[in-house]
Every structure is written in structure tokens, then in C-alpha cells.
TrEMBL record:
Pfam families: PAP2
Chain segments annotated as transmembrane: 53-74, 86-107, 183-206
Lineage top rank: taxon: Bacteria
Keyword Membrane among record annotations: yes
Protein name: Acid phosphatase
Keyword Transmembrane helix: yes
Biological classification of the source: Bacteria, Pseudomonadati, Pseudomonadota, Betaproteobacteria, Burkholderiales
InterPro entries assigned to the protein according to its UniProt record, in alphabetical order: PAP2/HPO, PAP2/HPO_sf
Sequence ranges assigned to domain Phosphatidic acid phosphatase type 2/haloperoxidase in this UniProt record: 90-202
Keywords from the UniProt entry: Membrane, Transmembrane, Transmembrane helix
Length: 223
């Protein structure tokens, strides 16, 4: 049943991306460019900073180091969940960021889609040569990928917080479109990459039979 659902989800995602590319992205960006006031631009630009992956990587690393020390030294965890779930959640976030970030980086270079600024400045709506670099790196949105990586992990490890986390990630995605840094298709794909990576990695890291996440990284491959 799961393979069928996965295939159906991929078909729906592809159909959504194609529809947005053909009929939504260009007119939406043109409309936003003509109607969004500067004050709203500034507000959404600030909100978009929540998609900075570096913030979450540093936080996850800090929590992972702290939880490993707690497990090794027998500290009493101030949180009810304990050090074990914190360590696993930290590894899951780091792994989701790493895998999702790698997929996003590769797609940006291979697809080489021109950013909206190229449409406004030069009338270019399309793709460039492989690995063309900026400004041909619009698809998918890395800020959206980072925001939804965090939201996806929270939804898995702390389900009661899933809707606030996903709503905040959606606002980050919206900010990238409103600020004309990306097209709608770019943020949809960024979210899809992040959530798919989180779902793929979760059973491999959160499974209690897997003890490697509770060891220092240089000991992950030891029996």
C-alpha cells in the first residue's frame, strides 16, 4: 500500500509543479512585483531569516553534544523525555538538513532555473546551462527546505507541535515568494524535499534498536 501512495504522491507533486510553472509562477511574481509595498517587503524579508539553516545546525549540534555528555556522565535530564530522544532528534535534524541540503544544492545546479529578478530585469523566464550558478539557482528554495526540515522533524518527534511548526515554515516559504526571491514552484519543491528526507530518515534514526545515534560520530560505524 505504501509504494502505491508514494507513487501517487509523486504524481500529484509533479502535476502541481508543472501547473505552477505553466500558469501560476510568472503572473503571480509579476503581480507581487507591482503591488507589494516596501514595508511588507521588509517584514517578510525579516521573516525569511528563519529559513537560515545555520541557526538550526548550530542548535542541533549543541543539543547533540549536551545530550551525549548527559548520557555518558549519568546526568539527570531537566526534560521529561530524557537525553536519548533529544540525541536522536538532534541527529535526525542534522541528517535531514544534510540530505535535504545536498538534494537542494544538486537540483539548483542541474535545473538552473532563473530567479524572478531575471524576469523583472531581463524578461528571462526559464532555465540556463547546467551549473550556471547565480542567478540561475532558483529551484528549489533552500530557505524553505531548511524551514520545513525543522518543521518536519518537530512533527515527527513532537506531534502536538506539528501545526505551529508547519505554519511557521509555510510563512517562511511565503516570504520567499512575496519578496520575489523565488517562484511558488521553488518553495513547493523545497518543502517536498525537506519533508521527504525527514520521513525517510526518521525510522533509521529514531528506532530504539539503532544505538549508533547515541554514540559520538567517530564511533557510529563501530559494532
Amino acid at each position: 500500500m505504501r509504494p502505491i501512495r508514494s507513487k501517487a504522491s509523486l504524481v500529484l507533486l509533479f502535476a502541481l509543479l508543472l501547473a505552477c510553472t505553466l500558469w501560476v509562477d510568472r503572473p503571480l511574481s509579476m503581480w507581487l512585483n507591482a503591488h507589494v509595498p516596501n514595508g511588507l517587503n521588509i517584514a517578510f524579508d525579516t521573516l525569511g531569516n528563519l529559513g537560515d539553516a545555520g541557526i538550526y545546525i548550530v542548535l542541533a549540534l549543541g543539543l547533540y553534544i549536551w545530550s551525549l555528555n548527559g548520557l555518558a556522565r549519568g546526568w539527570q535530564c531537566p526534560f521529561k523525555a530524557g537525553f536519548d530522544p533529544i540525541a536522536r532528534a538532534s541527529v535526525l535534524l542534522l541528517a535531514t538538513m544534510a540530505l535535504g541540503g545536498s538534494v537542494t544544492w544538486l537540483l539548483k545546479r542541474v535545473v538552473a532555473r532563473a530567479r524572478p529578478e531575471e524576469l523583472f530585469d531581463h524578461g528571462i523566464y526559464g532555465v540556463g546551462e547546467f551549473f550556471a550558478g547565480k542567478p540561475y539557482d532558483s529551484f528549489p528554495s533552500s530557505h524553505t527546505q531548511a524551514a520545513f526540515a525543522v518543521a518536519g522533524v518537530i512533527a515527527i518527534v513532537a506531534p502536538r507541535w506539528r501545526w505551529p511548526a508547519l505554519a511557521l515554515a509555510a510563512l517562511v516559504a511565503l516570504s520567499r515568494v512575496v519578496n520575489r526571491d523565488h517562484y511558488l514552484t521553488d518553495v513547493v519543491m523545497g518543502a517536498a524535499v525537506a519533508l521527504s528526507c525527514a520521513a525517510f530518515l526518521a525510522p533509521r534514526i529514531l528506532n530504539k534498536n539503532q544505538q549508533w545515534p547515541l554514540r559520538a560520530p567517530w564511533r557510529w560505524w563501530r559494532a
